[in-house]
Amino acid sequence: MTGEVVAIIPARGGSKGVPRKNLARVGGIPLVARAVRAARDSGAIDRVVVSTDDSEIAGVAREWGAEVVWRPRELSGDTAGSESAILHALDALEGDGVAVGTVAFLQATSPFIPSDALGDAVARVASGRAECAFSARESYAFFWADGPGGADPVGHDRDVRPRRQDRDPLFIETGAFYVFDAAGFRRARHRFFGRTEIVPVPERLAIEIDTAEELDLARLLAESEDGAIAARAVVTDFDGVHTDDTAIVAEDGTESVRVSRSDGMGVALLRRAGVPVLILSTEKNPVVSARARKLGVDVVQGSSDKARALAAWAAEREIPLSGVAYVGNDVNDLGALESVGWPIAVAGSHPLVLAAARVVLTRPGGAGAVREVADRVLVARRDALAPQKGERT
Questions:
Q1: What is d(CA 319, CA 76) in angstroms, rounded to the nearest whole number?
Q2: What is the dihedral of CA 288, 293, 295, 300, to 10 degrees?
Q3: How far apart are CA 179 and CA 292, in angstroms?
């Protein structure tokens, strides 16, 4: 099929079940950003578009590499359907001269969209094999309807209980993605038409967030999702990250802290690899600047607004916030953690920090936490630079 493959992610600002749901963080990343990332990682999408009525969602979408189509108020209420938002986005794109051949409709409320399965769905539709393809998970469940006369079986005989291996599976929509031919969608004005194919996805990833309980479940699953840290820069708090958050006070009032030589080596390895490092602290203690000089890294002290200071430092170096790792441990780090693509908490951090983190380290502050970050950043860089299967070395 001709024309671009465009991912469209409807993400309005209002939500009753989970307030501001599309900005809720799972694994430290806003849900709308996770959907943008999944589309980009599929390698099958030419353009990613977020349809929204909300300026904060628009800002996150752009930060993660998506374009924004502003959705009018009449298409942003609780009763507005996704199809209407997609049709509006198609009109806006084509009005700007974009020829759309295939649409990938992604839902931000599905936090674990498998990029490989999305790419498979796009290939099926773009090649003409199918008009529509959607994500679904296998199910061997026996379904029942509970009515006035009692329970009735749905799709099976109550008198026959075949074994799992003797049954063909049924499939349940996950809601993660629907891919379809753009022209056919305009004619049908619905996501299902023509030859429709199922793209199976793992059951463990088939989470759709509509309630606070489902959001909590997704956050638990996300804890084990990220191993390497694919960040372009590392910013750390000082107290509680480079130190164990204690201070030794002498009789004359001077303070001293304990730091880890292992952390110093980690910072040196980051610098050697060309990864910018910043120590960002609310304190004005001379020990912070002395440690930064020793490590040869940038330092900002006495900052009452860490998020703003971090953003200014990253902008000066032309590093997008989505590519920054911030390492913190306490509530004064929350603003900075929520502004970056890689929010990281040291072991033993405040519960709110742990909830905001994409990665929770195995080591506490002052005991190799910074070294652990450095090692994982360097692993990600090595993986990115390693030749892929089939490439010449």
A1: 33
A2: 50
A3: 50
Looking at residue 386, its pLDDT comes to 52
Residues 180 and 247 in one domain: no
Report how far residue 221's alpha carbon sits from residue 204's, in angstroms, rounded to the nearest whole number: 9
Q: Which of 197, 222, 247 is the last residue of a domain?
A: 222
Angle (CA) 198-202-207 rounded to 5° is 95
pLDDT attached to residue 390: 42
Domain closes at, from 222, 241, 258: 222
Residues 339 and 379 in one domain: yes
Q: What percentage of the chain carries pLDDT values higher than 70?
A: 95
Ranges of residues in the chain with a pLDDT under 50 are: 388-393
As a whole number of angstroms, the distance between CA 14 and CA 40 comes to 25
Q: What is the CATH number of the domain that holds 353?
A: 3.40.50.1000
Q: Are residues 208 and 253 in the same domain?
A: no
What pLDDT, in 10s, does the model give residues 96-118?
A: 999 999 999 999 999 999 999 99
Cα–Cα distance, 391 to 393 (Å, whole number)? 6
Q: Tell me how far apart the alpha carbons of residues 139 and 146 are, in angstroms, rounded to a whole number.
A: 20
Name the token pair of 35: 């959907």
Please give the tally of structural domains in the chain.
Answer: 2
Tell me: do 67 and 173 sit in the same domain: yes
Mark whether 238 and 134 lie in a shared domain: no
* Rg of the chain on CA atoms, in Å: 24
Q: Which domain holds residue 128?
A: 4-140+167-222
Q: Which of 103, 139, 107 is nearest to 121 (CA)?
A: 103
Is there a single domain that holds both residue 127 and residue 249? Answer: no
Structure tokens at 283: 């304190």
Q: What are phi and psi of 175, to 5 degrees?
A: 80, 0
Give which of 72, 36, 37 is closest to 52, Cα–Cα. 72
**CA angle 270–237–283, rounded 5-degree value:** 130
CATH number of domain containing 26? 3.90.550.10
**d(Cα 288, Cα 275) in Å, to the nearest integer?**
20
Q: Name the pairing type of β-strands 233-236 and 324-328.
A: parallel
What gap in Å lies between CA 138 and CA 145, rounded to an integer?
Answer: 20
| 165: DSSP letter | G
